[in-house]
Amino acid sequence: MGNEVPTAAELDALVTFLQADGERRSSSVARKLHDELGGCVIGATMDVAWIEQHDPLPADTVMRLARVNDGLRGVIDLTRKIVEELRPTLLDSMGLFAALSWQFRLGCKQAGIKYTENFPASVPEMDSHRLISLFRIAQELLNLALQRESLSTLALAVTVKDGALRLQMTLDGKPPVVADERQPIAVPMLSLLHRVRQLKGDIAIDSPHDGNAVFCVTVPVN
User: Fold this and answer.
1) Mean pLDDT calculated for residue range 13-40
2) Which of 179, 195, 144 has its CA nearest to residue 23?
3) What's 35's DSSP letter?
4) Which of 25, 26, 90, 162 would disulfide-bridge 86, Cβ 3.0–4.6 Å?
5) Which stretches of the chain are assigned E, i.e. beta strand?
6) Distances (CA, A) of 169 to 28, 34, 149, 152, 159
7) For position 101, what pLDDT does the model report?
8) Is the peptide bond before 56 cis (omega within 30 degrees of 0)?
9) Whole-angstrom distance, CA of residue 128 vs CA of residue 193
10) Sheet containing 213-220: which strands, arranged edge to edge?
């Protein structure tokens, strides 16, 4: 095999493979953390609770058991956070809109910005690949939004019409300043564009005269 430069189609296929493989690996790790680590921690918590019921216990033992309980609760919280970042359980249990609502509320709360949302009454039928791809697209849009300077408000509106799902984000603030031109901010956008293209969708970014920015992604649901 020579030193041929990969074609655009080959590079596109490579990115598709890497994104899909990353989702498979993330899902596998999330299941192991939830099932195996979660089971171990719950077992340890039950053992501590059993010991605490057997009075009388020395004061220093009670103190140490309380400290162990605090540590176990911290492990449970951290495991839950990691699992949700790897593979949002809400996406499988409650659907796309519940998962998006949770992700955006959490991100905006941590960033200290005002957030509003509007979703249809029901989620259209979609396969798991399309669901996780749409969720990742929304995640990447949120990450791009949170990089804006002086960001204070973000509004998310999702509509389903004529066999297409439309996700629109309206926000204020200014585009971030790129400190190092060798690390262009366009790289995350390229990943986003690839995901949208794989779903045969469209993306538009507009900056109206009122100073807000509007990110709009439209993809067919079937």
Assistant:
1) 72
2) 195
3) I
4) 26
5) 114-118, 153-161, 164-171, 202-206, 213-220
6) 31, 32, 16, 13, 12
7) 93
8) yes
9) 20
10) 114-118, 153-161, 164-171, 213-220, 202-206
The percentage of residues in the chain with a pLDDT greater than 70, rounded to a whole number, is: 83
Judge whether 174 and 148 are in contact, CB under 8 Å: yes
Give residue 71's pLDDT: 87
Q: Tell me the per-residue pLDDT of 152-183, one tens digit each, with 9 for 90 and over.
A: 999 999 999 988 999 999 988 776 655 555 55
The CATH class for the domain spanning 95-220 reads alpha beta
**Tokens 């699992």 correspond to what residue?**
83
- Please identify which residue in the block is written with the tokens 């074609």: 7
205 pLDDT more than 90: no
Q: What digits encode the pLDDT tens for the residues 69-80?
A: 888 888 888 887
Q: What is the dihedral of CA 130, 199, 147, 22, to 10 degrees?
A: 60
Long-range CB contacts (within 8 A, 24+) of 212-215: 212/170, 212/171, 212/172, 213/148, 213/170, 213/171, 213/172, 213/173, 213/175, 214/168, 214/169, 214/170, 215/141, 215/144, 215/145, 215/168, 215/169, 215/171
